[in-house]
């Protein structure tokens, strides 16, 4: 038998048929950016807040919470399987407000999760197992991971799309959404809604639009999965960003889940801090909420046992101290304010340069991202020639803009857009 490098030639790896996985979207681009040695490079891919020097920002409220917690004294015991109870109570009140949280007609089951991604995964698996929706309706477009999360965790549920984005008018497509759901959604299907700061478009329904969607969801008995990754980060106002969820909760027959993340609004990205809340119709709150929680705990136990400890303790400290809460509200205004200022600066520069087209959507969109309207060729050229990185869809993270690079970025966009024109005119 031939032996090569110590491996017998008739042996074949169990992974012999493994294909090379295609590089993973934003993370592959982020790696390319890291290796780019051009001093002018601009990272508009990053899904994390950066300060005006392009650096990660530790929120002062979080810093103060850690100081107060005397972090060295904290032990590393397991959390209970459901998670940190104080954290869950505070997190639930943050989403629903005090009145709904204490509602006795519909009770809310809550479990701590591995941040927002873990909450999305858990509800997908839970619905497949216990509600068996025929379809999950996702907005087109959506955060790319939603598709993978549903395919991996609920393979029996069909992924369907509702037309969220009206590319011609660069608006949220309310009519298209209503029409698709009215004509094609089946009773007890699930629908995913971004509660605020839709990723990637930065476009949310207005309150009238939310009301219409809520009525339709109730009529069609759809189960709503709210993804709440940007509460307070979008507008700077925690209550305003939770308005849609609280509005849906006023509909007596609506059942829903909320996937809550503290990655962006507390800057706890790597601490994987989040929760899943499930609001179901029940006669007698305690046993039913308990049984939902028990099943959530069982499912999550098989995957990760329980969510991590430290982030939930930091979050609890901030959420339960009135002083730290006030500091946090200021931090949210700092982050959302800087993003708004950068939107305005980019827009002003493009107008000053007389870049062809209407760029007002950049200031009208909210949250971390702008759907710039640039095509994949423009994006490719921005990267190759100007070292400005964004997703091929034209999604740009406004957090990557600073007072130091916004003019360069606008100039690069201007040159790419006008060069395209000159070439087309030839
Ligand atoms: C829409 C949306 N949902 C969920 C998440 C999940 O974030 P995390 O798992 O860090 O909480 C993100 C992160 O970018 C997001 O944009």
UniProtKB/TrEMBL annotation:
MF annotations from Gene Ontology: L-aspartate:2-oxoglutarate aminotransferase activity; pyridoxal phosphate binding
Domain Aminotransferase class I/classII large stretches: 40-413
Any one annotated GO CC term: cytosol
Cofactor(s) this protein cannot do without: pyridoxal 5'-phosphate
InterPro entries: Aminotransferase_I/II_large, Asp_trans, PyrdxlP-dep_Trfase, PyrdxlP-dep_Trfase_major, PyrdxlP-dep_Trfase_small
Assigned keywords, A-Z: Aminotransferase, Pyridoxal phosphate, Transferase
Keyword Transferase: yes
Family note: Belongs to the class-I pyridoxal-phosphate-dependent aminotransferase family.
Assembly and oligomerization: Homodimer.
Protein's name according to its UniProt entry: aspartate transaminase
Organism listed in the record: Aspergillus mulundensis
